[in-house]
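#dry-run=false #mode=assembly
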Amino acid sequence: MAEAAIASHPRRNPISRLWNDKQSRSVIIQVITISLVFAFFAYIIHNAVVNLQAIGKGFSYNFLWQPSSYDINQHLIEYDSRSTHFRAMLVGIINTVLVAICGIVLASIVGFILGVLRLSKNWIVNRLAYCYIEYVRNVPVLLHILLVHGLIVHAFPVPRQAISIGDVTYMTNRGIFSAKPIYEPLFLVVVVLFLFSLAFMWWFKRHAKKVQDETGQRYPVFWIGLGTIVGMPLVAFFLLGSPISWDMPELKGFNFTGGMVIRPEFIALLLALSLYTAAFIGEIVRAGILGVYYGQTEASYALGINRGRTLSLVVIPQALRIIVPPLTSQYLNLTKNSSLAVAIGYMDIVATIGGISLNQTGREMECMIIVLALYLVMSLIISAVMNWYNKRIKLVER
Amino acid sequence: MNQFIYKPGEHPDLPPPSNTVGPIAWVRANLLSSPTNIVLSVLSIWFLYEIIPATLEWAFLDAAFTGESRDECRAKAGGACWAFIGERFNLFTYGFYPADERWRIDLTFFLLCLALIPVLWDRCPLRKFGLYFACAFPFIAGWLLLGGFGLTPVDTDEFGGFMLTLVIGVTGISFSLPIGILLALGRQSNLPIVRVFSVGFIEFFRGVPLITLLFVASTMLNYFLPKGTTFDLLLRVLIMVTLFASAYMAEVIRGGLQALPRGQYEAADAMGLKYWTSMRLIILPQALKISIPGIVNTFIGLYKDTTLVIIIGLLDPLGVGRASLADTKWTGLSNEMYLFVAIFFFISCFGMSRYSLYLEKKLATGHER
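#status=ok
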């Protein structure tokens, strides 16, 4: 047909003939796209080179090995103001990852509870969960972060009037001070035993499933698991004579020294981010559970399976297939929103390498490239993990 | 006894048993149906009893509505000090826009409402002209707010408050949808190069936080422009916010495109329609309809994300509020300020999500099971 169309217009110019042929048109469009994109990048890179030369700045990452000369109040690895910018960046990464992981765990737990409450037949509980979700979802997360931070700083007392919980934990507006465990060498035995019991339970669970599949006999896997994983290390711990000593926080002057401290910035960021994300997760969980056809539940009851097992064996596995993809994007959002830490002074990636280091060294380009690359890598890792999980729970179609 | 014996078919309708209707039955079914439910109900009611009277007292009964400073408020009442919001209301609304020119913001806001009517209400009279007006609105608004051509020019540094939120929000919303559609089509395209670039763009912008993009806009963008070009900070923010939102929009619309049955694409091809015609007439109307909830969620996300501009120094309501708290006269009134700003955002975003529910219901064609 194409030939016929061309034959009926013998005098059409060659360009329009090329354009009307599907294959050549796609080549033309792609060549134009690629040249436009490359021209654009060439243009901005050229500009960047010219501009950097004009102000006499090169492009190098040598500054990473110079001393950073600023302090970071929360560092899980050795760090002081004589450490390098690179080390400051590592501290920032660890802080971001810490708040992201804690936030994801907390948000998932609260989110699942909210989703279940939202489905409750109890009218008042249902409405309360609804109001909470609607309020949280329709107000910016930055406002939540600032509000929670303000509440913690204003509502908690100064260290001198700290709220004491059993004289080991003190809640103040400078953070929560708690006893810090100091491990003695024998404690290693407990850790090894714990890991060993984890491995044993992994094997035992598979074995129990095999036995159940073959004979129908069921082992009380949960209780045995609890006994092995929690009980065995505990017994060993006391038999070895509690090989842990505690470093207690002490009030000295205007603040506590010693012990372990959780900073108010961290608490505020963690609470605000996870409570915010939990509202979204709650709606996702609700949609997922509603998305499982009610006949599945009825069929399960008809087989005589009790309520709890119906939920855990029939409804939740199917609901997870609906829940996991949107849940992934909520986890990603939480991780990316953790960059708002900069508003309350929590030292994450953006505040360390993208903030103070950037301002001290004046290396905008290098620092921002690092920051963007780090977030991209984190997003990719979370996506990869969740995609792997999604593939595992996906319906196997035959 | 004889009176209770009826002939077949003559039995009078009796009222239902009293424990299956009315408020008592409702309470029994909804609040006290099982031991867990009883515990939950009691806990919730106790929670409400603790929260509601205290909040009402703080916000209204024991609150000061007039006063010149925080101390004056505190002398009058122990609760909230709304006089603070009252005094700063103009700052919250207009930012630092020159006082003589504020009628231009009012007029723009009025025109915005006028432009929204034909967009949101499909049976409004003269809708066609209304839509033309809505398309022209961003340019009219730009002229009114920035000045020039007969109006006094106003620098964008003086933008602030709710007006700034609306400027960023409305611009982002109106430009991210078309860009998002193009990106989604690019990602679904048969042309590998176009696809690769679309995927790269979308994944980059979805992979990094908006705040880093705003930092890039404020610190680095000058390096990438020819020497000597100065670029308005607000404009840079607008571009970044729009690109960021359009990447998310593209993914939402891609979901809609993928959810369409393959037969729709094949039918469009079988009709002999060209690519753009088939997209415009067959694919996009259906795909966009499916993705309405996601699109509106992206709008809401964008609207909320406008608060992030305070981190690079623009003064939206939150920024104005924080700056006002630094005033020694009003220091320490952060709860009132946050609540006020939260109510503003809640009303806008809740309104948007309600409208999307209404739209979903209206456009449902009954094909769903």
